[in-house]
Specification:
The chain is α/β, with parallel strands linked by helices. Helix content is about 30%, strand content about 20%. The chain is built from nine helices and ten strands. A seven-stranded mixed beta sheet has the order 2-1-3-4-8-9-10, with helices on both faces. Helix 7 links the parallel strand 8 and strand 9. Helix 2 packs across helix 3. The longest helix is centred in the N-terminal third of the chain and has 13 residues. It starts with 9 loop residues before the first strand and ends in a 9-residue tail after the last strand.
């Protein structure tokens, strides 16, 4: 029997590679309007164990239930961080890596056909090496960033994102995950069907493997920016799944009934048993 919680959960948003916490701006404002408390910590992007430890420390400081949300590499971080975080009651993945035990990000990338953006990245040495820190980082080439990462955003926004991108340490992509939190916590997954960074087929595979409540969203890898309404609808659905209808000020909606994103993308619910994807 599902246990409903006496207080609204706090939403913790974890960004991925090549961006920062400001990528959640549209999502945060809409969650605030819905009456939800939000945290959006900076993901260090240095290594899976280190990044997960940091996010876990943020979550443990919160004395109410938490819905943990990850985009891109942020999905790998929440998967690793939430395993022993008792106050995490639901997980949401947005075009994100939901790793299994012993997997790394590159295992998923290499398991499926290369996405169009596969050749758009390059590695570079840190400008000023720091003792004990990773010595190389990965970027997306500025001239290719707009099309491979954020094709559904206005030109000016894409250009700003390409210049402001935060690199991820090479080691973060080969770090092995521990037991996955999605094996013991309810999960939701929004697949970005026009993603040129993370193959949508890989996204669906991970969603199916974790038996997530699955949604297909017509958007680029930057879907948290281009379609915040649809992303928020799914997060609210996850938050409301932990609550009874008469608890707190949060209005519960089903994601498929919510208004879609700025670019008119459709958000379609898919139950795992209705697709051909398996383990």
């Amino acid at each position: 029997m599902r246990r409903f919680l006496p207080v609204p959960p706090t939403i913790v948003l974890v960004h991925g590679a090549f961006t920062d916490a400001s990528s959640w701006a549209g999502v945060i404002s809409r969650l605030h309007t819905a009456g939800l408390t939000v945290r959006a910590p900076a993901n260090p992007l240095r290594g899976l164990a280190e990044d997960a430890a940091y996010i876990r420390s943020v979550v443990r400081e919160i004395d109410v239930p938490v819905v943990l949300v990850g985009h891109d590499y942020g999905g790998a971080v929440i998967t690793h961080a939430a395993t022993d975080a008792d106050n995490v009651v639901a997980l949401c993945y947005i075009a994100a890596f939901g790793l299994d035990a012993g997997e790394c990000v590159l295992d998923i990338v290499n398991r499926f056909a290369p996405a169009p953006g596969a050749d758009a990245t390059f590695s570079a040495a840190l400008p000023a090496p720091i003792s004990g820190a990773p010595d190389r980082e990965i970027y997306i080439r500025k001239e290719q960033f707009p099309q491979v990462y954020a094709a559904d955003l206005p030109t000016g926004v894409r250009e700003v994102l390409s210049v402001a991108q935060r690199p991820i340490a090479c080691a973060a992509l080969t770090s092995r995950s521990g037991p996955p939190a999605w094996a013991s916590k309810p999960s939701w997954y929004a697949i970005a069907t026009a993603d040129r960074i993370l193959n949508p087929t890989a996204q669906r595979f991970m969603a199916q493997r974790m038996a997530a409540t699955e949604y297909a969203l017509d958007g680029s890898h930057a879907v948290v920016l281009s379609q915040p309404d649809a992303v928020v609808a799914m997060i609210r659905e996850a938050a409301c799944s932990t609550r009874s209808a008469d608890q707190g000020p949060v209005t519960c909606v089903r994601a498929k009934d919510a208004g879609m994103g700025h670019l008119g993308g459709a958000l379609e619910s898919v139950h795992p048993r209705d697709t051909g994807f398996g383990h």
